[in-house]
């Protein structure tokens, strides 16, 4: 315990005294994270036009044990909604007038998502594939000094603005605390099911994505503009419409992000504002890691004009205890108020661990999380989720 206190003290001193290191110029490859090494012989192929097409993605599978205060259930295999299974393709088009252009497709496949299954129906959303599985279908034009323009289905400016997290446990624990068990029904104090599920009561207000059990994030058919990176600072704007899900609503948002390195310290932060119909959402997050000690801290806030607010705090530690890769541990706390209605309170505490296997691009993770919810109308039982699995990235 003393060792951990010393690490966080070093982290605080470094954050105050370290001098900033100038950020390197951003390239199109940086913007299109993850973009695999073009020399990789199986991920990259040559298109009929002679330009490379690069594939990327991940498979993320898990098991969930859930105790709702009355019954205990186990579900496996599940798709990890914290970092869902997906595959994408990047087609590098011919440069013209010094401008780089990339066409991107990315689709998700989650037949049994951890945020949809519950005590009544453990089938999830099935094996069907429809428009909602299309995460990105866009053309990205990087003009260099003028900035980057994106057209088509893809991330709005505020996508992941409340989810900046350098702890290396984000695969299973971050500000969207509902993702591991978001579809599970909350139990009333008398043991009966309430009409609420975890995802109704625990939201992180990430851009326009104000539904806690919606893992699709803040993506729409939109036009987006990103300014050039200036010493780690970038501003983004977007306007769009939800054409794949129900509602067909119009959206507009703006976000500012910063990513900088100060010798042994890395700091990432973002703040965004989103408007959907009559609802306005303001949210953001900040995360910092001290590389010499592995100590890290993450903080997020969100507020909606129509459905409450939340706060999130995580403390973590990253260590190279074994040669295979980094081991990361973290503890987090979540607080939400007025999310379901006036006077409602949502609480969660989580303990997470992640082990990297660098040689295979594999990550093994585990999470123990407690959920607590109350409102003015009823009393509810606390619930506990144990979530563990494996993710392979390529």
What does this structure look like?
This protein is mainly β and 394 residues long. It has a single domain (2-393), classed as Porin (Beta Barrel). It is 6% helix and 50% strand. A 16-stranded antiparallel β-barrel has the order 2-4-5-6-7-10-11-12-13-14-15-16-17-18-19-20. The chain has a two-stranded antiparallel sheet with strand order 8-9. Strand 19 and strand 20 form a beta hairpin. The chain is globular, with a radius of gyration of 21 Å.
**Physical arrangement of strands within the biggest beta sheet:** 2-4-5-6-7-10-11-12-13-14-15-16-17-18-19-20
Between the first and last Cα atoms, what is the distance in angstroms? 37 Å
Radius of gyration based on Cα positions: 21 Å
Sketch the major β-sheet. Answer: 16 strands, antiparallel, barrel
Total helices: the number is 3
In total, how many domains does the architecture comprise? 1
**Helical amount:** under 10%
The CATH topology: Porin
Which class in CATH terms?
Answer: Mainly Beta
Shape: globular
- Structural class comes to mainly beta
CATH superfamily: Porin
Low confidence ranges = 1-39, 210-216
**Could you give the count of β-strands?**
20
Mean pLDDT over the residues: 86
Approximately what portion of the residues adopt beta-strand conformation? over 45%
The ordered H/E elements are HHEEEEEEEEEHEEEEEEEEEEE
Summarize the helices and strands and which ones pair or pack.
Layout: H1 2-17, H2 28-31, E1 44-46, E2 52-67, E3 72-79, E4 86-92, E5 100-108, E6 134-142, E7 148-155, E8 185-187, E9 193-197, H3 198-201, E10 219-226, E11 233-241, E12 250-262, E13 265-276, E14 279-290, E15 295-304, E16 308-322, E17 325-337, E18 345-357, E19 362-374, E20 383-393
Antiparallel strand pairs: 1-2, 2-3, 2-4, 2-20, 4-5, 5-6, 6-7, 7-10, 8-9, 10-11, 11-12, 12-13, 13-14, 14-15, 15-16, 16-17, 17-18, 18-19, 19-20
């Amino acid at each position: 315990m003393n060792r951990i206190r010393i690490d966080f003290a070093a982290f605080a001193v470094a954050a105050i005294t370290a001098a900033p290191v100038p950020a390197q110029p951003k390239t199109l490859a940086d913007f299109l994270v993850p973009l695999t090494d073009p020399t990789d012989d199986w991920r990259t192929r040559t298109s009929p036009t002679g330009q490379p097409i690069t594939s990327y993605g991940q498979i993320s599978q898990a098991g969930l044990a859930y105790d709702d205060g009355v019954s205990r259930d186990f579900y496996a295999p599940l798709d990890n909604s914290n970092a869902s299974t997906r595959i994408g393709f990047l087609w590098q088009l011919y440069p013209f007038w010094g401008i780089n252009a990339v066409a991107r497709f990315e689709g998700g496949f989650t037949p049994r998502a951890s945020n949809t299954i519950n005590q009544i129906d453990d089938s999830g959303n099935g094996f069907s594939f429809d428009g909602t599985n299309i995460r990105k279908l866009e053309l990205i034009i990087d003009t260099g000094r003028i900035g980057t323009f994106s057209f088509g289905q893809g991330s709005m400016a505020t996508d992941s603005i409340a989810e900046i997290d350098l702890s290396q446990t984000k695969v299973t624990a971050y500000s969207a605390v509902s993702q591991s068990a978001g579809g599970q029904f909350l139990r009333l104090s008398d043991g009966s099911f309430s009409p609420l599920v975890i995802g109704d009561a625990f939201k992180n207000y990430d851009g326009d994505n104000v539904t806690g059990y919606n893992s699709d994030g803040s993506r729409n058919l939109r036009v987006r503009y990103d300014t050039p990176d200036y010493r780690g600072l970038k501003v983004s704007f977007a306007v769009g419409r939800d054409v794949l899900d129900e509602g067909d609503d119009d959206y507009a948002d703006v976000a500012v992000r910063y990513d900088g390195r100060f010798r042994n310290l890395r700091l990432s932060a973002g703040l965004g504002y989103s408007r959907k119909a009559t609802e306005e959402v303001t949210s953001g997050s900040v995360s910092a890691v001290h590389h010499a000690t592995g100590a890290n801290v993450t903080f997020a806030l969100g507020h909606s004009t129509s459905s409450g607010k939340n706060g999130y705090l995580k403390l973590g530690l990253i260590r190279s205890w074994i040669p295979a890769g980094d081991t990361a541990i973290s503890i987090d706390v979540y607080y939400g108020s007025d999310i379901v209605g006036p006077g409602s309170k949502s609480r969660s505490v989580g303990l997470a661990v992640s082990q990297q296997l660098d040689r295979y691009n594999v990550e093994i993770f585990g999470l123990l999380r407690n959920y607590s919810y109350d409102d003015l109308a009823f009393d509810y039982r606390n619930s506990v989720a144990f979530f563990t699995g494996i993710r392979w990235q390529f």
